[in-house]
């Protein structure tokens, strides 16, 4: 006989956190879409391409230089005695690692990639790299908040940064003062605001546990090759396209990528809510919870992609103008690959729990090499469409491998990952409750 439900049912708390996260992601999607429209109309394809290259370099510095500490935090979180020190070290470790990454990225661009950024935009690059320490700290601190199930702090920080970015860009766009430099500066300021809002709810104190810091860095480094390959899988196509084509083509492709990024942000809300349960439960319970999360994401991703493919092309072109009409085809090609990648993310988190860095690196590395080979093959023949096709194929192959390995390691049947009537009833009930509250 089952026990009666109590007010402390963790599923109720998870549902509330998911509701807040989904609403926050929706607000961020709206703000991100508005920001993209403002920048596209103010800069045009060429200057938007230059801006996107700078942002890609800065985000590459974050991804390549963060040493995968957030994955190490997540893996070590299963040992309760480490949690206070992991929390205390997140801010300072993020700033220190990020500053090192920013300096290294600037040196690499100066020595090996001078052609990536014109000399006239060198100051913009410096502003972009100034965001790297802030963004690495945001990654670490956000991860700690998520592990504490304090997703409200994550929501507030992301919304504050988005509001500052969107409102400032709107004001400067209205005054016809937007340039590549101003767009990059505002992007950096928004990262600072995000971090500032996160700190009051974080029990910040002097760094402690030097041995744990070394263990965190060491374990993160073992996971880092896979993280680097994952990032390059998502971003290197921009730099390949920039090298093989024009900044205008990069600008058009960036508009195709933006809706896909927003779609990924929506489904990541479910992943964030599920993460604490995946890390704190025993392996059997974590596997069952992972399968349930995958089923919910399949429903959300299918509905989102369907709406996106029907309405997205018309809305994007109407918003940014005919100069970006070439983004429609790559945008539609990217959508299925992004949906597949989103569906596999809970499986990737479960594999992180098992501490198999070599296997993870092989998965991401194979998908990355496949993406590079397809980009080199297809871009000369198909341009931005070939770039999008290469990414979708690589995303889908990676997702299939992750799902297959999860099914095998967890000992569950593949059919348990397909949504059924239970998921439909759960989502319908959740929507009715939200509408009733509204």
Automatic annotation (TrEMBL):
Topological relation to the membrane, as annotated: Multi-pass membrane protein
UniProt key word Lyase: no
Keyword Membrane in annotation: yes
Main location, first listed in the record: membrane
Alphabetically ordered keywords of this record: Cell membrane, Membrane, Transmembrane, Transmembrane helix
Subcellular location: Cell membrane
PANTHER family: O-ANTIGEN TRANSPORTER-RELATED, PST FAMILY PREDICTED COLANIC ACID TRANSPORTER
Organism: Streptosporangium lutulentum
Residue ranges crossing the lipid bilayer per the database entry: 21-43, 49-69, 90-112, 124-141, 153-175, 181-205, 296-317, 323-344, 356-377, 383-407
Protein name: O-antigen/teichoic acid export membrane protein
């Amino acid at each position: 006989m089952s026990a009666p439900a109590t007010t402390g049912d963790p599923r109720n708390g998870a549902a509330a956190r998911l509701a807040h996260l989904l609403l926050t992601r929706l607000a961020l999607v709206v703000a991100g879409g508005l920001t993209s429209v403002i920048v596209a109309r103010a800069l045009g394809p060429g200057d938007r391409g230059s801006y996107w290259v700078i942002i890609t370099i800065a985000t590459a510095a974050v991804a390549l230089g963060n040493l995968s500490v957030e994955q190490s935090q997540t893996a070590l979180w299963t040992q309760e005695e480490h949690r206070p020190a992991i929390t205390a070290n997140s801010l300072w470790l993020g700033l220190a690692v990020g500053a090192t990454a920013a300096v290294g990225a600037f040196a690499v661009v100066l020595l090996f990639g001078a052609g990536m950024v014109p000399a006239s935009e060198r100051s913009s690059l410096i502003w972009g790299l100034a965001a790297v320490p802030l963004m690495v700290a945001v990654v670490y601190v956000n991860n700690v908040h998520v592990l504490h199930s304090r997703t409200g702090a994550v929501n507030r920080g992301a919304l504050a940064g988005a509001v500052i970015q969107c409102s400032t860009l709107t004001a400067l766009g209205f005054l016809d003062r937007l340039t590549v430099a101003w767009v990059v500066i505002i992007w950096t300021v928004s990262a600072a605001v995000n971090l500032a809002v996160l700190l009051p709810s974080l029990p910040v104190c002097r760094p402690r546990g030097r041995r744990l810091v070394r263990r965190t860095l060491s374990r993160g480094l073992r996971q880092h090759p896979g993280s680097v390959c994952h990032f390059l899988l998502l971003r290197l196509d921009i730099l390949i396209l920039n090298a093989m084509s024009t900044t205008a083509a990069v600008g058009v492709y960036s508009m195709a990528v933006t809706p896909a990024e927003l779609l990924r942000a929506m489904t990541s809300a479910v992943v964030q809510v599920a993460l604490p349960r995946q890390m704190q439960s025993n392996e059997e319970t974590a596997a069952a919870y992972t399968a349930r999360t995958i089923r919910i994401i399949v429903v959300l991703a299918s509905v989102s992609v369907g709406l996106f493919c029907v309405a997205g092309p018309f809305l994007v072109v109407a918003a940014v103008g005919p100069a970006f009409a070439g983004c429609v085809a790559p945008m539609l090609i990217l959508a299925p690959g992004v949906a597949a990648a989103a569906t596999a993310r809970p499986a990737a988190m479960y594999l992180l729990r098992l501490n198999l860095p070599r296997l993870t690196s092989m998965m991401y590395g194979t998908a990355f090499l496949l993406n590079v080979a397809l980009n080199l093959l297809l871009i000369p023949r198909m341009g931005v469409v070939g770039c999008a096709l290469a990414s979708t194929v690589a995303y889908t192959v990676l997702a299939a491998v992750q799902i297959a390995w999860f099914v095998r390691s967890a000992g569950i049947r593949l059919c348990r990952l397909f949504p059924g009537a239970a998921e439909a009833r759960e989502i319908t009930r959740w929507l009715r409750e939200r509408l009733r509250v509204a």
